[in-house]
Amino acid sequence: MTKYRVYFNRHNEFPQVWSIDEGDVETEVNVKQLIMVDVRAVTHYDSTGDNVNTPKAWFEVHGRLEVRAGVAYIFGE
User: Fold this and answer.
1) For residues 46 and 52, is the Cβ–Cβ distance under 8 A?
2) Tens of pLDDT along 6-44?
3) Helix (H, G, I), strand (E, B) or coil at 11
4) pTM attached to this predicted model
């Protein structure tokens, strides 16, 4: 299982409005839709985030990521 950050991307990235990464933007994947199956998610907030390199708010999700046709699937345990 991998730990991912899932957050809403900038609206100018439309239709790829969701970002998923492994804790830094170098691993970022942008998708138009997100489907989470049997996962646990915890929310986080960082008021110092600049929403460019670091999001202000995100879900932390543990699972296995698959991307198909611009849709991200995260499968939990």
Assistant:
1) no
2) 999 877 778 889 999 999 889 999 999 999 999 999 999
3) helix
4) 0.87
